[in-house]
Amino acid sequence: MKSMKKVLTGLVVVATLFVAVGAGYAQQLDERTQQALIDAITDEYKAKATYQKVIDTFGEIRPFTNIIKAEQQHIEFLLPLFKKYGVEAPKDEWADKIPDFASVKDACETGVQAEIENAKMYDEFFSFVQEQDILDVFTHLRDASQEKHLPAFQRCADREGSTTGQGRGRGGNRN
């Protein structure tokens, strides 16, 4: 009976180690996918800092006031993936790195370009990322960029090129 207990205890220990090692292995990401997570959150940090700079410079104007909230949500969608896969999330160090904008139109055009580049980045990631949860988040972020943010910045740039000054939110007509 004692030897049977030892065998069972040994099997439980081996099974536990196997499950623990297997679970840890399953959670590992290849280097490219780890870098994709880092690049994704860094890009979201940069966008958030850019839109904050616009708000600080020109006031509470749309679409920046709306999209900055979305960028924070994007960051919050990404952070659990870092934790799940044991990847250290980089710090947000973009606050002091964003250049000044000459006008709201310049800021809107920068937003257009940033959203185009954001979608290209995610499209590149789709060629090698295998983990479905990461793909789901990347797809959601890319779609938000293309379907919501890009059109909003395009409208902003078009509006700023006109002389009507409509749709500027509470910030008024500030160039």
What is the gist of this entry?
The protein is mainly α. It contains five helices and no strands.
Question: Please, could you describe this protein's structure?
Answer:
With 175 residues, the chain is mostly helical. It has a single domain, classed as Ferritin (Up-down Bundle). 73% of the residues lie in helices and 0% in strands. It is built from five helices and no strands. Helix 4 (104-125) packs antiparallel against helix 5. It is elongated and about 80 Å long. It starts with a helix and ends in a 14-residue tail after the last helix.
Describe the SSE topology:
Elements: H1 2-26, H2 31-58, H3 64-85, H4 104-125, H5 132-161
Q: Might you state the CATH topology name?
A: Ferritin
Structural class: mainly alpha
Report mean pLDDT, rounded to a whole number.
82
C-alpha geometry: elongated
- Judging by the overall fold, what is the CATH architecture? Up-down Bundle
**Total count of helical runs of at least 4 residues:** 5
- Fraction in beta strands: under 5%
Radius of gyration: 23 Å
How far is the first residue's CA from the last residue's CA? Answer: 86 Å
The major pleated sheet works out as: none
Helix content percent band: over 70%
Quantity of strands, as a count: 0
CATH homologous superfamily - what is it? Ferritin, core subunit, four-helix bundle
- The total tally of domains equals 1
SSE string: HHHHH
CATH class: Mainly Alpha
Poorly predicted spans: 7-26, 163-175
